[in-house]
Records
---
Amino acid sequence: MKVKKSQITGYNERYLSEHHEQYFHLNIQLDRREINADDLVAQLQKFQVAVPSWALGAGGTRFGRFSTGGEPGNLEQKIEDVGLLHAITQSAGAISLHIPWDIPKDTKAIKQKAKSLGLVFDAVNSNTFQDQPDQKYSYKFGSLSHADSSIRQQAIDHNLEVIEYGKALGSKSITVWLADGSSFPGQNNFRRAYQHTQAALQEIYNGMPKDWKMYIEYKPYEPHFYSMVIPDWGTSLSLAEACGENAYTLVDLGHHLPNTNIEQIVALLLMKGKLGGFHFNDSKYGDDDLTCGSIKPYQLFLIFNELVEGMHNNVNNNPDLAWMIDASHNLKDPLEDLIQSLEAIRIAYARALLVDREELAEAQEENDLTRCQEILQAAFRTDVRPLLAEARRLSGGALNPIGFYRQMAVRKQLIKERGLKTVATGL
Ligand code: PSV
Ligand code: MN
C-alpha cells in the first residue's frame, strides 16, 4: 500500500487552523524563554530514526504469538511498510536488516525500492543466536566465545558475510549482539569466553571497510540466566577499545537491570567518544520491548538531556549516533506501535533541546538543587507536540500520524492485499 502526498495534504487541511493556533501559542511561550521555535523545528526535521526489518510483524512471547494480519511476507513488503511509516511521519527514513532473516535476493532491486521511498539502509545485524537449517555447527553453547575454534570461525564468517550484504546495500555499519553466555555456574570460563570474543570481534572488525563502524550491543541476561559474555557497557566498551577507533558501544534501553541509571552510562560513553547508537524501547521489568515512552517517559527525556548536552560539548568527537527502534509488538498493530514510538522519541528529543544549559550549569555550580530540578522539569513539562507536528507538516507528513493512519484504514487495506495469515520473518 502506498499513500499519496495529496491524501496527506487533504487530511492536514482539516486540522491546519487548529495546528497553527497551537504552534502560535507555543511560539509565544518559547519566545519568552528566548528559544526560537523554528530552529527547533529544523532540528526535528533532520532527526531520523531507523526501523528494524524484524519489527513490522507481530512479536510474540515464549507462550505464543497472535498475528495482526496483513503482515509483510517478504523484504520488499517490509520496505514498503517502512516507506509508509516514513511518508506519514517523515521521521523513519532508514531500515535496519537482520541477516539471515532478511537476506536481499536481488540487491539492486531492493536498493531501488528503498530509494524510491526515501529510505537508506542503516546498520546490518548478524545473527548467531539461532541455528539455521543449512548450518554446519550449532550455536547452542555459544558462537564468537565458543570453546571450539571451528564454531567461532563459522560465526566470524557469518558476520563477514553480513558485512558483504551491507556493502551491497550501502549500509555503513554492523551491529553485533551476542547471545553467548552461561546458564549455570561453572559452565563457562569467564576469561576464556571474553578472550575468544575479543579475538573474534577483532577479526570481524578487520574485515570491515575502513569507513564502516561496528556497534557492540550488551545485555545483562537472556537468553542466558547466569552470565552473559557481554553483559554491560563496561565490557562492551573494553571490547570496542580492543577493536579500534571505529568500534563503539550500542545501548539498547531494555538491556539493563531494573533502576540502572542509563542516562549516566550515556553521558560517560559520549565523554569517551565511544557511544555508537541506540536501540529504543521501554520496559517495566527487563527486556520487555514495549512501546518507547509508554512506561518511563521521564527517563527517556533524561537520556536525551545527556545526549544533547554531550553532543554540545563533544570533546572526544563522538560521531553522529545511530538511532533505531528495537521493540516487539505483541498486542498492538506494529505500525501504530512504531508511530507511537517515533513520536515519543522525538518528544523526548525536543524537550531536551529546551533545557537551558547555561542556567543549569550555573545552578549546578551553586549546588542549587531545587533550581536544577525546576530547569529540567520546566523543559519536561512543556507540551512540544506542536513543534513535532510543524516539523512533519513542513516535510510533507501528517499533522496527526495515528489519526491519518486510522482514517486511511491502513491495516484493513494491508489485510486485503496480503491476507490475514501472513507471518513476517524475524522475531
Ligand atoms: C536482543 O535482545 C536484541 O536487542 C538485539 O538487538 C537483537 O538484534 C534484537 O534484539 C532482535 O533479536
Ligand atoms: Mn537491541
---
Amino acid sequence: GKGLAVLTSGGDSQGMNAAVRSVVRMGIYLGCKVYFIREGYQGMVDGGDNIEEANWSSVSSIIHRGGTVIGSARCTDFMKREGRVKAAYNLVTRGITNLVVIGGDGSLTGANLFREEWAGLLDELLENNKITKDQREKYKFLHIAGMVGSIDNDFCGTDMTIGTDSALHRIIGAIDAIVSTAYSHQRTFIMEVMGRQCGYLALVAALAGEADQVFIPEDPVPNNWVEKLCKRLQQERKSGQRLNIIIVAEGAIDREGKPITAELVRKVVVDNLQQDTRITVLGHVQRGGSPSAFDRILGCRMGAEAVMALMEASPDTEPCVVSLDGNQAVRLPLMECVRRTKAVAQAMADKNWDLAVQLRGRS
Ligand code: ATP
C-alpha cells in the first residue's frame, strides 16, 4: 500500500484528534500504510520513534480529547534546508509519499515548500549515498494535503477552522458563569478573549453572550469611543439591567492602532461611571477541554476528504487545503489560500481594515 503520514503543527486546537483519527482510519480503509509523525515537523526531522506506524485501534478513544495526542511543536530545524533534507530521508526510507499536515498558515507554507523542493532533496540524498537509485525513482513524487486547525477562524478559504466552535463553547460557558455573579453584585465585567488578528471569537461570543460592547481588531474604535461606551453602559443600567459585559479581543485597537486593552477599558469605566468593574482573561482555557460535536464532525469529514484527495492526486496535482464551504468539504489550492491569509495580515498591518475584511471573504 501507499505510505501516508499525518502530523499536527503550530498551535493546537480542539478537533485535531478527530482529524488525525479520520486520516488514519480512512488511510487504512483505502489500503495505505499509515504513520503518525509526533511533535510536528520536529518529529519528521528527528525521525526514530517520532514516526510510528498507526493501526485501527491506535486512534481509538481520542476523538473526545482536546489538543492533539500526537503532539505539536514549532520547529526551527524545518525552516532550514538541512532540516528538510533529514525530513525527506525519514519519509523516503519508510516509503511515505503522502503527507497530511494539520496546522496554520505557517505549517502549510512549510509543507508546500517541502513539496516544491522534494526532487532536489532526494537528489541530494542520492548524491550522498543515503538513498538508492531505486528509492529515488520509486518515491519521486510527494503529495500534500492540508487542514486548518486553529481556534481563531483566521484562515481564508474555509468557513470554519477546526477548533473555533469548541473555543466559542468555552467562551460562552465562561460568559454565562460571569453573568450570574455579575448580576448578584451589579458588576461590570470585561472579558479578554483570544484573537490577535481576527475578531471572530470576540464578535460571535458577544452576540451569543449578550454583551453590551465588543472591541475587535478589524473595527478600530473612533476617537469618541469612551463617551459612546459610557453612554451605552449607563443606558443599560438605567433601563434596569443589573450588569454589563464587555468583550475585548486581544488585538483590539483604536484608529491610530493603539491597543484597547481590558485594563484600559476597566479604567475608563471606573473613572467615568464608578462601576464595580472586574477583568477576566480567559487565556488558554479557550483552546482546552473537549471538542464540540461540530469540531469532531468537522475533523472527521476533513480528514477523510484529505486522504481521498491524496489518493486521487497525480504528479502535477497542486497541493490542496481541505475547507468547509457552506456545508461542503471542498479542496482548495493550498498556496492561494495561504497567500490570501497573509494578504489579510498585511492589510491589517497597513491599517487597511476594510480590505482585510473584504479579503477574508465569507465567515
Ligand atoms: P498558528 O496559526 O497556530 O501559529 P502556524 O502553522 O501558522 O500555526 P507557525 O509557527 O507559523 O504556526 O508554523 C509552524 C511551523 O511550521 C514552524 O515552526 C516551522 O517548523 C514550519 N514553518 C512555518 N513557516 C515555514 C516556512 N516558511 N518554511 C518552512 N517551514 C515553515
---
Amino acid sequence: MLRARITGTGSYLPKKILSNHDLEKMVDTSDEWITTRTGIRERRVAADSEATSDLAVNAARRALEMAGVAPEEIDYLVVGTITGDFPWPATACLVQDRLGAKNAFAVDVSAACSGFIYALDSAVKQVVSGAVGKALVIGAEVLTRIMDWTDRNTCVLFGDAAGAVVVEATDGGSGVLSTHLHSDGSYWELLYQPGFGTRHPVSEQGIKERIPFLRMQGNEVFKVAVRSMTEVAEEALAANGIKAGDLRLFIPHQANIRILDAVAKRLGLGEDQVFVNVHKYGNTSGATIPVALDEANRQGMLKEGDLVLLDAFGGGFTWGSVLIRW
Ligand code: ACO
C-alpha cells in the first residue's frame, strides 16, 4: 500500500528576540502575567527586510537538504499561511521561484493555525493517489506585522517562524497513517483579521479603527480549542486502534501552555510524550507544528517506527490531526 512519508524537516526562526520584559515597555503587561497565563517567555520577530516567503525559503532549504531532494524534483509545493507576502499571488509561487522548484504546482492554504495540517493533508492525499511523487509542505508566518501593538490582549501571544517538510511516496509500513480535518465557520468572529479584504476595503477610517490587525476573544477561543484538539486527537487514535500511551510524541499547535496542558491531561499523556516550545517562540500559527517537528527530529527524539500525533486548532474555526508512524 502506498503511503506518504516525511523524509526531511527544516525550520527557520528570525534572529530578533522580543522578551516579555521588552513587552513591558510597550504595553501595560508584565512578565509574570504573560508567563502564568500563556507559558510564553519570548518570541521571534522578523527583520524589516524579511517577509513570509523569506522565512519559508530558509525552512524549505533545510528540509530539502535533509531529504536529499533537489528543488526541481518537487511536484507539489504548498504553504499554509495567513500572512502571505501579498494578498496574491500565493506565497507558494514566490517560494517556488526562489527555490527553483520549476516543476512544481504551487498554492497556499488559508486555515490559520491549522494551515500546516491542512496543507500536509492535501500533500499526503496527492502522494497516496500517485498524482504526485514528492511534495514540499511549509507553514510560515510573519504575524508580528498584523499585530495591534497597543492591544495587550493579543500582541503578547504571537511570533514569526517557518517550518517545512518533504513528503514522498513509500510502500513500506511507515508514513502517515491517517489525517482528520474539521471546520466550524459559525465561530469565525472569535478570531480573525477584519481588513483589508473585500468586506472592509482599504480606507483611512479603517486604519483609525485598527481593522488591519488580528482580533480575538481569547477566553472563548480557549474553551473550544481544548475541546476540539482533544476530540480530534481521540479520533486519530480510535481510527488506528492506538492508545494514547503508545504515542512516542504528541506535537500540538503551540498556542498557550494552558491549552497544551489541558489537552494532554484529557488524553492521559505523560509529560515526556508532549513536545513543548511555546516558551521560546509564542504562537506562530501555521508554523508551530513543523517547527516543533523539526526540533524534535533534529534532537533525535524520533526513531523509526515511533508513533507521532500532530494536532492543530485555529481561526475559522479549523482543527485537525495527523497520525504518523515515523
Ligand atoms: N497583560 C496583563 N493583563 C492582561 C493582558 C496582558 N497581556 N491581556 C489581558 N489582560 C487582562 C485583561 O484585560 C483582563 O483584565 P480585566 O479582568 O481587568 O478585564 C484580565 O487580564 C483577564 O483577561 P482574560 O481574557 O479573561 O484572561 P484569560 O485568563 O482568558 O487569558 C488568554 C487570556 C491568555 C488570551 C487566554 O484566554 C488564551 O490563551 N486564550 C487562547 C487564545 C489563543 O491561544 N489564541 C491563539 C489563536 S487560537 C489558537 O492558536 C489555539
